[in-house]
Amino acid sequence: NGANAWEMVTVQDYIYNAWPVIDATFRYSIFLYGALAAHARAGRLVVRLKGGDPFLFGRGGEEGAALARARVPFEVVPGVSSALAAPAYAGIPLTHRGLSSSVTIVAGRAGRAGRGAGAEEPDWELLAHAAGTLVILMGARAFPRIAARQLRAGLAPATPLAAGRRGTWPR
After folding, report:
1. Residue 106, Cβ neighbours under 10 Å: how many?
2. CA pair distance 15, 9, nearest whole angstrom
3. pTM higher than 0.85
4. SS3 of residue 143 by DSSP
5. What is the pLDDT of residues 7-46, one digit of tens each?
6. Residue 10 CB contacts under 8 Å (≥ 6 apart), including other chains
7. Please, what sign has the CA dihedral across residues 131, 118, 25, 46?
8. How far, in Å, CA of 39 to CA of 151, rounded?
9. What distance in Å separates the CA atoms of residue 78 and residue 147, rounded to the nearest whole number?
10. 109 to each of 93, 113, 146, 149, 151, how far by Cα in Å?
């Protein structure tokens, strides 16, 4: 299973190790939307393959809106988000009777300059006191800042934390 890609620690003990983060720039997005529409208009069958759920931080909504504006018919075949699949693959339940009956999924990089135009920064202080499991996607680089804010807001330093990357990749 994928357990070897996960590390069980506490928030206080988390050691930040940066890993490569793929940056999709605004210019690339505009190019991609145009290329999808142009190839479809030329009569080609266009497949835009995305991993996971294309509408959960996957720009699927932006791409769908661009194709709709261009009057290009399209179909979405949804997948399973890594927010749910990777912990399950590692044997980590996001909900568990008596421990957690809810899951909140947030983008850890929302609000950063040049990213997620119009996206608001999650309310980390509120989330520090929220019941349930918190899943932070795309938050590796911001994790030290996020953890510090949540600890200042009253999150218990011994709060369990699972940090993962490449959740189902072979090692």
Report:
1. 20
2. 9
3. no
4. helix
5. 444 333 333 332 223 334 455 666 777 888 888 888 888 8
6. 157, 158, 159, 160, 161
7. positive
8. 50
9. 32
10. 24, 9, 10, 14, 18
